[in-house]
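Obj.: predict assembly geometry.
Materials: sequence records (below).
Method: joint structure prediction, all chains together.
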Amino acid sequence: VPESTSPAQHHEPPKPLPAAALYRRCDPAQFAFQTTAELEPLDDTPGQDRAMDAMRFGLGIRREGYNLFAIGPAGTGKRTIIEQFTRRRAASEPTPQDWIYVFNFAEPHKPRALSLPSGRGAALRQDVKTLIDDLRTALPAAFESDDYRQRRQSIDSVFKDRQDQAFRKLQRRAKEHDVGVLRTPVGIGLAPLRNGEVMEPDEFHKLPEAEQERIQGEMNAIHQEFQAIIEQAPKWEAERREKIRELNQEVTQFAIGFRFDSLCERYQDLPNVVEHLKVAERDLAENAEHFLAAQASGQDGVPVEVLARHAFTESSPYDRYQINLVVDHAANGGAPVIEEDHPTLQNLVGRVEYRAQFGNLVTDFTMIKPGALHTANGGYLLLDARRLLMQPYAWEELKRALRAGVIQIRSIADMVGMVGTQSLQPEAIPLDLKIVLTGDRVLYYLLAELDPDFHEMFKVAADFDDEMDRTGVSETAYARLIASITKREKIRPLDRGAVARVVEHAARVAGDAEKVTARIELVADLLREADHLATEAGAETITADQVQRAIDLQIYRASRVRERMQEEIRRGTILIDTAGARVGQVNGLSVLQLGGFAFGRPSRISAQIRLGKGEVVDIEREVELGGPIHSKGVMILGGFLGGRFGRQRPLALSASLVFEQSYGGVEGDSASMAELCTILSSLSGVAIRQGIAITGSVNQNGEAQAIGGVNEKIEGFFDVCQAAGLTGDQGVVIPASNVKHLMLRQDVVAAAAAGRFNIYAVATVDEALAVLTGAEPGARDASGQFPAGSINQRVEAELVALADRAKAFAAPEKKESAS
Amino acid sequence: VSDPFDVERVIAALDACSDDLEILAAAVDVAARLQTAVAGLFIEDESLLRLWSLPAARHVTLGRAARDLPSAEQIEADLKARAAQAEAALEAAARRQRVPWSFRVVRGRTARELDAATMNDDLLMVGWTPALPGLPIRLGSPLEEAARELARSTVHVPRRGTMARPVAVVRAGSPLVNRVLAAAMRLAGPQTGDLDVVLSGAAPDILRATPEITSRLLSRGYRARIRGLDDVRVPDLMRMLAEIGADSVVAAADVPLFGEQDGVHKALERAGLSVMIVH
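Observations (raw structure tokens):
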């Protein structure tokens, strides 16, 4: 059976890419404008058609659970887009109802929620306030009238006379029976009299027993009558109070009746309001003594407990008739769009506030404060998913509200079952709104995976792309997007050269010559900074030079670490050769991402071969510095070696791979082609040119596969080579499938154009080997043999030799075991 | 010219029902204003002591359990303690104001002992006996009743009562006008100023009496502010006193309201005013 012959066909070594392939320019001449001031701003964001369609669908469908989750990386401007989109839509929608909380006269701890047409809540609040102000003067006036005084005195007199008469009658009766009534330190004493004086005890004892008994009997009878009157007194007092209460109600009703009637008439189209006003009127009439107490504490006839209640409270007795307007749409047209930037539980569902009073915390319905769900009800609520999830209980309570379809004000203390101070249970308010969450993809997929409620409640995903196609049309659209940003941010216009440079930079940010980034915020940052430079230069428009200078400054500000690393390579602390050739050693390339800045870093990768059982040892993985994808890439190398060279005999090698001077984690498979080349170099003994670095992953068939960060990697090695001196023999091998991603720095492009630095695009590991070694990799012929002296032939020969040696080592053991 | 209101002593009387020792300080204050001595008199009413020893006696307990009533021995001890407290309070107040003082305890019938202990030129001061809780009418103490029947000039002082800004209340044409005005002026102090006078009676009588009262007060440096009332009734009088800002009333005994059984106490209860009834 011949060894695998595909894909190791004979190829000419790849030629360096032309400079034009390294950077796709944006031609300013394609633009029909001189500056962006001539451009109409965009209504929509280009390249986000899928997300916008999802938005239209999600906001349009009025079904339970069709809330939106806008997915996309930060900086795509999705929040601005969503806000503008929802505001446009909301403006044409009906304005929702106002909501008020009022006192619940039946259950004071459960304030009632009433809805009114928009704008009428504020009117009702003002009307009730005016009514209360009227009552503050009208009620005392009614109680100070001569008519009231006379009727009140008449009641008092009747009861006073009744009491006086009863007591005087009793006193007379006592006197008739020679019984004295004396005030004592502890009450009243009753004693038999003799000649107007209290009888001497001795005198009493000398009386005949029958007489003593008669006196005792009389004393008992009078004593019982006294006790009866004293027991009767509180009943008379209660009766008097009831009469006064009835009088007060009558007077109050007279003073307030026509005022309430007028108010009820004004709100006759709102039965819930009229019902509340009727109950309030009845309550006011029944509690007239509260108003007397509030007006004139100490006034005769006001029950002591009422006075005490007013003495120890800061609230007015009129407070309970007030209107707490929690949702007021008087000033709004259309549906509300609320963006809650701090979505705590309380900021979402509202709160009941408290005030300290004599060391206690007290509250009432006027201290109910609305949350974002209240203010957005009937419209749209925009929330940042990450911030929402970071707030205790906010996510759970939001889901509960959506599930139940009502807003119920609950505190964290309620949620965790803590015993709090006496609180209110405000009536729940029906909830009807769209929620738009924004967040990144990871968050969306985590919620979808881990929260079973998520899909039920957020059925529509608006997936914002982080890049868009770069075509002639979209470059023009991008120019309009730039114009939109300049208008919004009050940035001076860009000339078309500057626009072209921004487009090119947007492609570089996207890491793809055929795309531009959709992360609008990054572009906006660049424009702001270029505008600042233009201001300093006194320019009226932003030019390409100012854009480039802004880009350079961004890089300069962020590149301290990169420069330190380059310096250490230049000084020989980090060992990177850029000249000569070495067996089993290659320059790999990796990307470091620090903050928002990415740069390439060359790393020396070396391989060592010894007798073994066919395994490729990833030293990074052994010491737990290699990530799973990196390990997978290394294991693929074993697959490749087995597929190409291990069909006839076992692979009796053990290959060790290491990133030299790497002390951090290594992840990704972008070095797998470099590692394979190193192993093959080590096996074949063919040296690798150290002036060429290589990046790319490889599959088991030896095909090169695209990797990320190709521009940064090339530039990272270019910088090292430039520092050492460009020779024309230096360059970078990349997968052919990465050519479309090339948007290299201008100095790199210039060096390539001058033939001083070369970029090679390879489709296979054999092509890579050809570039790296300058030797013929070799392909199997019809008999399955590699050409003599080719790299593959030398590899195979070494593997045969290793296998033979392994066999020789194994043979004596076999004999021993046979004997 | 002798003063129509010449007081020999101020006698502060207390009994077992008087629970306000501040009467003693008020009496010392009045004595200081009148530049006379103060005498404390604590009367142990023998009727009360008999009552406690009499098997036929009954107590209307007013909410107190019968078993909690004090015994005769406890009443005796309580009287002694109250008398000692009163003496100490009087001594302290008198020393503070450097007013000559004396104090004695007598036992017997209250009316008789009070009569025996006071003379016509004495000013009697009687403390506040609070209303009994639950009792629909006010029942005065034996001391209050005795003071009312004694027909001597008497001051009834409510709890924390003062007599710094008196209002004179007289009946037009009454023989007591001069004594009342003199008492009011002496209480108001030697400084010149306004003195409010409420004159009751028919309008012609009031008009007739006004010039004489005005000139009499003016001769002593007071400007008379006279208000007429055809009949002195509690609500009208109270409103007038509130407008004036008075803390006390010096009233002639022949003004009907102040001669009534409950007249003084109505005023006391309603407004916390001290009332001097001049005989």
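Conclusions so far: The mean pLDDT of chain B is 85.
To do: check interface contacts against the pulldown list.
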